[in-house]
Amino acid sequence: MVPTMGALHHGHTSLFEIAHQQADVVVATIFVNPLQFNNSTDFEKYPLQMERDIQLLEEHGVHYLYNPTVETMYGSGFSTSVHIGGITDLLEGASRPGHFSGVATVVTKLFSAGQPDIAVFGQKDFQQFAVIKRMVADLDMPIQLIMAPTIRERDGLAMSSRNVRLSTSARLEAKAISQGLSAAQSLFSSGIRESQQLVEAVESVIAPTSAAIDYVKVIDSASLQDLSSVSQGSVMVVAVILDGIRLIDNHILV
Question: HEC string of 105-137?
């Protein structure tokens, strides 16, 4: 299973390719989940392109599409929520209250409906993957999770359905996010192990743009807690607001 919210791009199609390598039958889900949007305007502006999405699914050999309605997912009287403690209070969870309860609830329902053996998610949403991994372990779900590498545009910007909403000038500025992460990796490769120096390297690249930085941190890949000293496998995470659009990215230090 490859759960998505539609508006598919090459990042999604890379997930389908990985799924084909792992399983005989690949199911994609498309559902724009209202529970994970704490901003109603963001939900209303989420791009929809179902005809194009179906074409991409066919081109990439996806066997089945599950495309439920909001009424199907959350009918009259729906009152259940799945909450994962701890790691959902950090990073995106701190900035977007209720977001991860919405994610966990919808993914639980998708897993219940589809009963997948394997589910594939993208690394761009690193915290989301960590939350789902915790949920699957805690609830004894017999599902293997695969985190697929982030797919990037030619200039390094992580592919996202939100990118199409950026103005021309903001789109040019957005590449600073990945450039900052690359600068941090270069420092790490040179022997720097103090997280603050890596954070400042990222911030210094983004600062000249019009982006408002929400956070730049180096975190432990499992607990998602801030690190003062970093090592191979530590994760740099970034969130900015650019042109009114929230953009996130990350890089696992190697």
Answer: HHHHHHHHHHCCCEEEEEHHHHHHHHHHHHHHH
φ, ψ of residue 206 in degrees (nearest 5): -80, -30
pLDDT tens, 117-170? 999 999 999 999 999 999 999 999 999 999 999 999 999 999 999 999 999 999
Same domain, 218 and 104: no
Q: Looking up tokens 């695969």, which residue turns up? A: 146
Q: Which of 12, 60, 99, 251 is catalytic?
A: 12
Same domain, 115 and 183: no
Q: Judge whether 154 lies within some domain.
A: no
CA dist 12 and 56 (Å) reads 10
Residue 20 domain flag: yes
Q: Is 118 left (phi over 0), alpha (psi -120 to 50) or beta?
A: beta
User: What pTM did the predictor assign?
Assistant: 0.94
Known catalytic residue: 20?
no
Distance CA 150, CA 128 (A): 13
Domain match, 25 and 123 both: yes
Q: What is d(CA 5, CA 135) in angstroms, rounded to the nearest whole number? A: 20
Helix runs in the chain, H state only: 10-22, 40-44, 50-59, 70-73, 92-95, 99-114, 126-138, 168-189, 195-206
The total of structural domains in the chain comes to: 2
Q: How far apart are CA 61 and CA 2, in angstroms?
A: 13
Same domain, 133 and 179: no
